[in-house]
Design a protein that fits this description.
Layout lengths: L22 E3 L3 H27 L2 E3 L11 E10 L2 E8 L2 E4 L5 E3 L6 E3 L13 H28 L2 H6 L3 H15 L11 H25 L1 H6 L1 H6 L3 H29 L1 H10 L1 E3 L3 H4 L8
Antiparallel strand pairs: 1-8, 2-3, 3-4, 4-5, 6-7
Helix pairs in contact: 1-2, 5-8, 8-9
The protein binds protoporphyrin IX containing FE.
The site of protoporphyrin IX containing FE has 18 residues, from α1, α5, α8 and α9.
Length: about 290
């Protein structure tokens, strides 16, 4: 593989390349490093966060919680029935039987009451203290990583060039949606409109909101920035937003992986690991929409 490290498409000198387009240097070292750091951090934060949730498996709206308030919007628990203990999940008053996964789970004959099952939490056994240490450690790794990504992206032009929305993106959106629905992918240097929306949404909305709502729940932050809790609608609402953002990130992750598999996992992974990306032959670039992952 012989190519020049530049942001412009560069043709390989090893000829011929009849079926494939040029190999280009697409993801900078900063993009790749920060990508894997936040993917790694979010993995540990998700599993330790579910363990922390297990200590109080309800979500509320507002500033307070307790029996005297009727502001529970989600509850995961267990109840005794004629058929023995069953796990349930109640969302906005609608109750679902989730035995075996949520509320009541474990190896056959050793089931226990836990909101999220042991295979979905860090540590797998009940240990709130360790979960909090893991969660807060990776929260700082994630926050630092996001700041590094922002500074590097502003300096090297990644944010302006690859993520900033343009008027043209809006024009391409309908065609882009149709192409995604047909799993028709184009491999070019630019992110397509849906990618820009998804990546921009994660990096500029979901992750910052995750950090802000996390800070709003911290008692020490409450004394430093008391208004933060207030503008988010209270501590319990901040916790509910934090949980909802987690669900949205999990949703993003599932679609992200499915799109990568559909667009060609070897080429996509090479791009996010080494920076090098195989584009479509020039003729295909004439098509109206861009590559997707
Ligand atoms: C929670 C985990 C993850 C999150 C939040 C995430 C998020 C993102 C974001 C925001 C980008 C755009 C980065 C930028 O342009 O600065 C991106 C790119 C990418 N990610 Fe992930 N990612 C995650 C996990 C993964 C995993 C596990 C894989 C591989 C299996 C993966 C593969 C890729 C690839 C190949 C790209 C480049 C896509 C392209 O250039 O078209 N990601 N990811």
């Amino acid at each position: 593989m012989e190519a020049i490290a530049s942001n412009e498409p560069v043709v390989e000198t090893n000829k011929p390349v009849p079926k494939n387009g040029p190999l280009i240097y697409r993801q900078s070292g900063w993009t790749r490093l920060t990508h894997w750091l936040w993917a790694f951090s979010l993995f540990f934060m998700l599993l330790s966060g579910l363990q922390i949730f297990n200590a109080r498996p309800q979500l509320y709206i507002g500033k307070q919680s307790g029996f005297e308030f009727h502001n529970t919007i989600l509850e995961i628990g267990a109840e005794n029935t004629a058929n023995g203990p069953r796990g349930f999940t109640e969302i906005f008053g609608h109750r679902f039987d989730t035995t075996g996964v949520l509320g009541w789970s474990g190896p056959p004959g050793q089931e226990t009451q836990r909101a999220f099952p042991s295979w979905l939490t860090i540590p797998s056994y009940y240990d709130l203290g360790t979960a909090r240490v893991v969660h807060f450690f990776f929260a700082w790794v994630l926050t630092t990583t996001l700041l590094i990504w922002l500074i590097a992206g502003l300096i090297n032009g990644h944010i302006r060039r690859d993520l900033a929305p343009r008027v043209d993106d809006l024009r391409k959106l309908p065609r882009d949606i149709v192409d995604h629905a047909k799993l028709k992918f184009h491999h070019t240097r630019e992110y397509n409109t849906l990618q820009k929306m998804a990546y921009g949404g994660v990096l500029f909305v979901l992750l910052p909101l995750m950090i802000i709502t996390g800070l709003a729940m911290s008692p020490s932050m409450n004394s430093v920035l008391p208004w933060l809790n207030e503008i988010l609608g209270g501590r319990q609402t901040a916790r509910t937003i934090h949980f909802t953002v987690m669900l949205m990130l999990v949703g993003f992750f599932i679609i992200h992986i499915l799109m990568i598999l559909a667009a060609g996992p070897i080429n996509e992974l090479r791009s996010i690991i080494t920076g090098w990306y195989r584009t479509d032959p020039p003729a295909k670039h004439d098509q109206p929409t861009e590559r997707s992952a």
